[in-house]
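2024-03-11 09:14:02 INFO queue: dequeued item Sterol O-acyltransferase 2, len=497
2024-03-11 09:14:02 INFO validating residues
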Amino acid sequence: VFVIRKSLLDELMEMQHFRTIYHMFIAGLCVFIISTLAIDFIDEGRLVLEFDLLIFSFGQLPLALVTWVPMFLVTLLAPYQALRLWARPRAGGAWMLGAGLGCVLLAAHAAVLCVLPIYVAVEHELPPASRCILVFEQVRLLMKSYSFLRETVPGTLRARGGEGIWAPSFSSYLYFLFCPTLIYRETYPRTPSVRWNYVAKNFAQALGCVLYACFILGRLCVPVFANMSREPFSTRALLLSIMHATLPGIFMLLLIFFAFLHCWLNAFAEMLRFGDRMFYRDWWNSTSFSNYYRTWNVVVHDWLYSYVYQDGLWLLGGRGRGAAMLGVFLVSAVVHEYIFCFVLGFFYPVMLMLFLVIGGLLNFTMNDRHTGPAWNVLMWTLLFLGQGIQVSLYCQEWYARRHCPLPQIVKEAEIIDNPLSWPLASEPTFSLSVVPAASEMPLENLEEEGLPKNPDLRITQLLFLLSLPEHRGDAATWLLIMKPCANPRLAEGHGPP
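2024-03-11 09:14:37 INFO prediction written
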């Protein structure tokens, strides 16, 4: 049910005591800026704020925005036109032809949304923030399309003989694609006017959160994990890195919450005069993880509850609430892991395990029967540890892949390797380079293949029957060049700066 109401933080900001907490976070950003200027002045003798991390993260942003245009257009046209084809009077074979054409439109819509952003991100090697824009829009448009069809198709298909057949207006569908909700309704409660100063304030706060996140990563994460790869692996170092990452991890969680769930959604809600601003509840007061999952992101929770949990219960005949709840966790965990995989460019199922396994267990064990401040403290403690694990492991894997990338031939052959941040027990790590081995190729010509001329290289001729399309059925001799991995942890002085 949609009603006109404010966001909770807007109500709390009217209290002087809560505004002071907000001011403390702003003071923290000022401290980061002063620290950056001071360190830069001491090291370089100049007062300049560098935004290398921000520039790198949002690299090729115009390409990401151009890619969004066909994604939006196909979402704007295909589902609505498919519904109109299904809503035509059912007379003879004309309706069947239109229904088939509607299915083709939806298949094309799904193909464009699923394939195009992945192709652009991989082919053009988009950096993380630009990838983030594409994957969030991909998931958002898919969820909105599903909600629109799920809410309108059943009534359309139940109509008989052309009587009572109804299709929503195009303007209502267009409004739905931009308004901050994932549940389709023909109308929503609207505010009487737009406060443009409120819109500008929220966009400015969202931009400030992005800068804040860059300072946190640049000062608290990059130096630690970039240097960590220069030291031998140990369990002690891993645990210390997780503990160190808890503070930046929880800061990142709070910044994502405030920037997106409060500032970004409220800015669009105000511009579109969308009245219901309950995008979250007081999740910070939760004493159970079941309540935390329900209140952290109400926008996504409502979609999962309506279309996964309730539809799952309906398919199970009203029984099996536990199975329906597990279905919700499975869908949510897979989508979260897909987003991480898309943004970072590698599959490392830390989020999948934490969300599906640990989160699922906590949802059933730390349920609503537990109340009291001790349970709230426990919830926050586990949130700190979970964020520390994610930041630590993903950062280690990121730098391991930058310092010791997989050879292109291994990627093309689709050889699945272990995460590169995992240490090998008692064995040195080598990077593999595979090049064609013509019998007349002398050893000194290896430099032409981009390999160093080094007498310590161990070269072994191996015979591979490759399954690559261009070599299928052919016996080709290849040189497997094993050289010390260009990872500063193993070979000081190698790898990118």
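2024-03-11 09:14:37 INFO annotate: The chain has 15 helices and three strands.
2024-03-11 09:14:38 INFO item closed
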